[in-house]
Design goal:
single chain; 291 residues; mainly alpha; 4-stranded mixed beta sheet
Length: 291
């Protein structure tokens, strides 16, 4: 899903469109993470350009805030995507490949991908990378299901994809009651297990309201990360909530560096590669000194 690019343009920040639906897909970063991004940009510059589609920002909301705040130039690249649904899938894929996500976040994105793919098929928006061209001549009854295709793509079972879709439904139900709580779940601030979310997906609106109220008043009970549990599938030691600060910082800068390197993979722009490597080394040295 990642697109290659070897150029960027300087864009007036006021011309960039912020789409609330797209923005709400992204995890909300904490104050420390935002401060870290600001510090990095002020010291090394904004290494990775912001991604736009038809002038709409798909990636780089936090960087845009820092650049605007300090009056710095905004580098952007424009992506060619077929539709709004394709843009959503790009955001999902980009988040999954560049971030260390906890189990709930990962399930949410895979489930959202599933729902978006189903919408593309229903609306006949167009053919994309998950609907192979060869399938167009295959009888519909023999075509692999959306869950099968995405299961192969994410290297999980089709049943996992369907369960992920339940998790997504539950989080979106919560978001209808409280966008802030949805954001806190996706950021990892509010801890709720996938099992609880799957149960909630088949519940009533009253059930959702109860959970939202309990989270609001602090009475909601969920197994906290790091707490021993027999449900090993719901615990992930790479969950950002249980990482040391230096681990989160290292993970963030490494994910960003990998993303940049993917952009140069098919080019011969060795000068830019060397600059990116030098900046990465500098950030590692700073991290080393701070530990």
């Amino acid at each position: 899903m990642q697109q290659e690019y070897s150029y960027y343009t300087i864009t007036n920040a006021s011309e960039i469109i912020i789409d609330e639906e797209f923005k709400q897909i992204l995890p909300v970063l904490g104050e420390k993470e935002l401060a870290s991004i600001e510090k990095s940009i002020l010291k090394y510059g904004c290494i990775e350009p912001l991604k736009l589609w038809n002038g709409i920002l798909l990636d780089g909301h936090n960087r845009l805030g820092v650049l605007t705040k300090h009056g710095l130039p905004v580098k952007t690249v424009s992506l060619e995507l077929e539709s709004r649904e394709e843009a959503i899938i790009w955001i999902i894929d980009f988040q999954i490949t560049r971030r260390n996500l906890n189990p709930v976040q990962l399930s949410y994105y895979r489930g959202l991908h599933y729902h978006t793919e189903k919408l593309i098929i229903t609306n006949k928006v167009g053919v994309n990378q998950f609907t192979e061209v060869e399938e167009q001549n295959v009888p519909q009854a023999k075509r692999p299901s959306t869950a099968d295709r995405l299961g192969d793509y994410y290297n999980v079972s089709s049943m996992t994809i369907k369960r992920d879709a339940q998790v997504t439904n539950a989080i979106n139900f919560i978001g209808e009651k409280s966008p802030d709580i949805k954001a806190s779940i996706l950021s990892g601030t509010t801890h709720i297990t996938k099992k609880q979310l799957k149960e909630l997906s088949s519940g009533t609106q009253d059930d959702v309201s109860v959970v939202v109220n309990e989270i609001n008043n602090g009475t909601f009970v969920s197994r906290r990360p790091g707490t021993p549990s027999t449900d090993h599938k719901t615990y992930d030691p790479t969950d950002s909530a249980v990482m040391q600060p230096w681990e989160r910082e290292f993970s963030k800068m490494t994910d960003e560096f990998r993303s940049i390197m993917r952009g140069y993979a098919s080019t011969e722009d060795t000068t830019s590669v060397k600059i990116a490597l030098k900046q990465y080394i500098g950030m590692l040295e700073d991290l080393y000194k701070s530990i």
